Amino acid sequence: MSTHIGAEPGEIAPVVLMPGDPLRARWIAETFLEDARCYSEVRGMLGYTGTWRGRRVSVQGSGMGQPSLAIYANELFREYGVESIVRVGSCGALTDRLAVRDIVLASGACTDSSMNRIRFEGLDYAPVADFGLLHRAYEAARTRAGGADVHVGLLLSSDSFYSPRPELTARMVEYGVLAVEMEASALYTLAAGHGRKALAVCTVSDHIVTGEETTAAEREKTFGAMVDIALEAALGA
Ligand SMILES: O=P(O)(O)O[C@H]1O[C@H](CO)[C@@H](O)[C@H]1O
Ligand SMILES: O=c1cc[nH]c(=O)[nH]1
After folding, report:
1. Where do the Nucleoside phosphorylase domain residues begin and end (predicted)?
2. Catalytic residue among 21, 130, 206, 228, which?
3. Average pLDDT rounded to a whole number, residues 18-38
4. Closest Cα to atom 1, ligand 1: which residue?
């Protein structure tokens, strides 16, 4: 067991899909994996290991926000030898180029968090996706997107779901940011620091410009196309 994950050594696969919502983790395990078994219920942050097309894969909830994700990603990389983490998350569209249920493959992730500023003592680090995972996800999206439009570009990983400074988000959009979520930047940074691989594949759950939104149940159980893309990218031939 690590501090926050109740798995024995060897119980977690080298490839991990990581939704923020632990109930989305359960849905992914029950819907997409064979022989899925729950390895951790610590704090309700569910984790499962099963197989997909005969290959072992785990699904681990991260919780919301970079500090929470960093706990799980650090323990997976350091204590369970995980090689790749693919975040399968929801995000809010910041531009009318995106529609609800579109999918974003995050080539990089900006942030308003102080985590990297502290890590790099004020220098600006650019957290980016593993190119191999990103390339395979892009290829997989040709057949696995289920009709959704797929965009490759920048996310904003914000510490605030309810932004106190929307004018700064607008400036990010002027510089190409597509959507906002709360974890990808820390995931990319931690993967790089550990010499491992990471990608964030996010479905647009709500639209900051139009106000359109999905329900909690839809965010938990209906974003299957991003899971198909993530599995193909991480485990496909
Ligand atoms: O749906 P998940 O994967 O949790 O992702 C998004 O949803 C949460 C906010 O509602 C944040 O964690 C954000 O990043
Ligand atoms: O962090 C998030 C996730 C989904 N939608 C948002 O507006 N923000």
Report:
1. 15-222
2. 206
3. 98
4. 90
